[in-house]
Amino acid sequence: MPALPKKKLLRLYHDMMLTRMFEDRLSKLYRQGKILGGLYLSTGQEAIPVGTCAHLREDDVISPVHRDLGAFLIKGIEPRFLMAQILGKETGPSKGRDSFLHAGSKRLGIIPPTSILASTIPIAAGVAFAFKVRGEDSIAVSYFGEGGSNRGDFHEGLNFAGIHKVPLVLVCENNKYAYSTPVEKEMAICCVSYRAESYGFEGVTIDGNDIFAVYDAMEKAVEKARNGGGPTLIECMTYRIKGHSEHDEAKYQPAEEKEEWKQKDPIARFKKFLTESGHLGESEEQDIIDKIASALDEAVKFAEESPFPPGEDALKHVFATNEEP
Amino acid sequence: MPEITMVEAIRLAMKEEMERDESVMVIGEDVGMYGGAFRATEGLYQQFGPNRVVDTPISESAIVGVALGLAIMGFRPVAEIQFADFISCGFDQIVNQTATLRYRTAGDMFAPMVIRAPSAAGVHGGLYHSQSPEGWFAHTPGVKVIVPSSAYDAKGLLKAAIRDDDPVIFFEPKYLYRRAKDDVPEDDYVIPIGKANVLQEGDDVSLITYGSMVHHCRSALEKLEAEDLSIELIDLRSIMPLDKETIYASVKKTNRVVLAYEDHKTLGIGAEIAALLSEELFEYLDTPIVRVAAPDTPVPYSPPLEEFYLPKEEDIVKAVHKVIEY
Ligand SMILES: Cc1ncc(C[n+]2csc(CCOP(=O)(O)OP(=O)(O)O)c2C)c(N)n1
C-alpha cells in the first residue's frame, strides 16, 4: 500500500464512485428507453480507468474503449457533456453523430473509440510515436479487453510499439468474458501480459480490483514511458459483473463465480481500507456521495433538456469543405 | 406452414443443411452455447457439437481464413461475422484470399463457403452497427452477394448459398430479423442465386430494390394506391450476380426506373444498374433513372440524424412521381 496523501486517496475514491453512480443513472435512463443502442457497463472494473488515469497529465493522450467511462471523465469530459453524448444530443462531443462512449476530444487528449475492437491500439502507438519523434515526454495509454487482444490490430500495434520503443502504456482489462465467450475459449495462455514479451517489452499481470495495485503498476509504467523506456502492458485481472450489455442476461456466467467476484468489489474493498485507516468518516463519505449525486442530477437535466441535432446536420463534417452545409 | 421470423428462418436453413450434409459447419463469435448475438445459431451447438459449431475469439480475419481452409478441405463452412460493420477486419481474407482462389488455381481449388453478417440500419446502431457494405463485395470478382428481404427468401437463399460451390456473402438486414415474418414451409426448398423476384407486376414504373428497402417500397406503394399507377416492384435478392434478364424485361415494358437502396448513393448497386441500363437499354428509357439511397456520410446515431439519413417511403413516392411527371 503506497503512502498516498489523504486528498489523493479521496480523489481516487470519488472517481470510482462517480463512475459507478454515473453508470447507475445510465442503467435507469436505458430502462426508460432514453438510451438507444447498446449500453456496456464497467461495474466492478472501476479501479482500472481510475487508477491508471490518475497518473496522466493534460498533454497525455488516451484511447479508451466501451467499458472505460471513468477514463473519459477523469481525462476531462464534463459529466453533462458525456451524458449528452450518450443521449445522442447536439451538446455531446460527437453532436449526436456517434453512440455511447464514442466520444473524442483533441484538446483533452481522447481518441474516440469505434466499435471495432483493438483498432485504436495501432492508433495509440502512432500517437506515442509522434511524441517520441517530437522529443516530448508525453505518453499515450491504450485500453482494451482481453477479447480485443485476439485481433490482428493488437499484435501489429504492439509489434510497432516494441520496435520503436514508443511511450505507450497498454492497459488490458481482463474481465474473463468477451461477450459470452469465456477467456479459455479466447486464448490458450493464461495471461495477455505474456504477449508483451514477444514484442520486446514488459508485461505484468495485476489485481485489477485493487486500486493500489493498479495505481502502482501504472506509476511504474508511466515513469518508464516518459523516460524513454518504451511500452509496458499492464493486464488488470477483473470480472464483468453485469452482462455484456444491458440487454444480456448473461446466464452463461455461473452464479457462484459472479458471487465470488462481487465479494472482491473494488469500491467496497477500497472503502473498507479508507474507513479502517481513518481516512473516510461517515459524514465525509456522505458528502462525496451527495456531491456526485447533485452533479449527476445536473448532468442528466442538462442532457435531457439539450436539443437533438437537426436531421440535415447529418451531412456536415464529412470533409473540411462541408463543415457548414 | 408455421409463421416464423427471418432470424428463425436463417437458423432453420443452417440446421436443415447441417442435418442433410455433414460437411456443413458453423464458425464465428459467440455462435456456440450462446447461440449468436442475434440467436441465429441457437441450438446448433447442442445438436451438432463443438466440432461442427465452432466458437472463435474476436478474430474476424481468422474466422474467414479458417473457413477458407476448411472449405479447401471439403467442408462447407458458414462463418458468422457478428455485425457486417466488422467484416472490414476480415477484408483481405475475403477479397484477396477467398474471392480469387478459383481463378488463380484455374478451377483446381475453390471455396464453397458462406459468410453471414447482420447488416444495415434502422435500429439506432450508430456508425458501427448500421453499415450496408454489400457494394464493396459486389465490386469484388469471385464472391456472390445476397441480401434477403423476407423470412421465406432468407431460408431458401441461405440453403442455396450453402450448397453453392463459390463463396457467398449473405447480408441479413437486422431491421428485418424479427419484423419480417412469413409462412415458411417446413420442407426443403431452395431459391436460386442470381434470380430476382417480381413482387408486383406493373406497366408504368420499374421500382427495383432489395433488403429492408423492399418493405419501405411496399409501404410507398400503399401510399400510391389511390393514384392510378401501375408499378412493377422487383426485389433483386442477389446483388451479385445481378438478374439482368428480369431487370431488362421490366424496363422494356415500363420505360421508367426508380432504384431504391439503403447503401450510400455513390457507387452503390443502383449506380451499376443505372449504368447498365444506359448502356443496354438507352432507347427504351423515357425518363432519367432516379436513385433513392442514403447520402454519402457515415450512418449517424442520433434519431433525427438517422431518420434524415435513411431513405424513406416519402422519398420513394417522390421519386416515382418524378419519373411519372417528367
Ligand atoms: C472487431 C469486432 N468484432 C466483434 C465485435 C462485437 N463485440 C463487441 S464487444 C465484444 C466483446 C469484447 O470483449 P473484450 O474485448 O474482452 O471487452 P469486454 O466487453 O469484455 O470489456 C464483442 C465480441 C466488435 N465490437 N468488434
Automatic annotation (TrEMBL), chain A:
GO terms for molecular function: branched-chain 2-oxo acid dehydrogenase activity. It comes from the Bacteria. It catalyses: N(6)-[(R)-lipoyl]-L-lysyl-[protein] + 3-methyl-2-oxobutanoate + H(+) = N(6)-[(R)-S(8)-2-methylpropanoyldihydrolipoyl]-L-lysyl-[protein] + CO2. Residues 305-325 are annotated as: Disordered. One of its GO terms (biological process) is branched-chain amino acid catabolic process. It holds the Pfam family E1_dh. CDD domains: TPP_E1_PDC_ADC_BCADC. Residues 15-309 form the Dehydrogenase E1 component domain. Its cofactor is thiamine diphosphate. Its EC number is 1.2.4.4. Keywords: Oxidoreductase, Thiamine pyrophosphate. PANTHER family: 2-OXOISOVALERATE DEHYDROGENASE SUBUNIT ALPHA, MITOCHONDRIAL. Belongs to the BCKDHA family. The branched-chain alpha-keto dehydrogenase complex catalyzes the overall conversion of alpha-keto acids to acyl-CoA and CO(2). It contains multiple copies of three enzymatic components: branched-chain alpha-keto acid decarboxylase (E1), lipoamide acyltransferase (E2) and lipoamide dehydrogenase (E3). This is 2-oxoisovalerate dehydrogenase subunit alpha. It comes from Candidatus Abyssobacteria bacterium SURF_17. The lineage of its organism: Bacteria, Pseudomonadati, Candidatus Hydrogenedentota, Candidatus Abyssobacteria.
TrEMBL record, chain B:
GO terms for molecular function: oxidoreductase activity. It comes from the Bacteria. CDD domains: TPP_PYR_E1-PDHc-beta_like. InterPro entries: THDP-binding, Transketo_C/PFOR_II, Transketolase-like_Pyr-bd, Transketolase_C. The keyword Cytoplasm does not apply. Gene3D superfamilies: 3.40.50.920, 3.40.50.970. Keywords: Oxidoreductase, Thiamine pyrophosphate. Pfam families: Transket_pyr, Transketolase_C. Residues 4-179 form the Transketolase-like pyrimidine-binding domain. This is Alpha-ketoacid dehydrogenase subunit beta. It comes from Candidatus Abyssobacteria bacterium SURF_17.
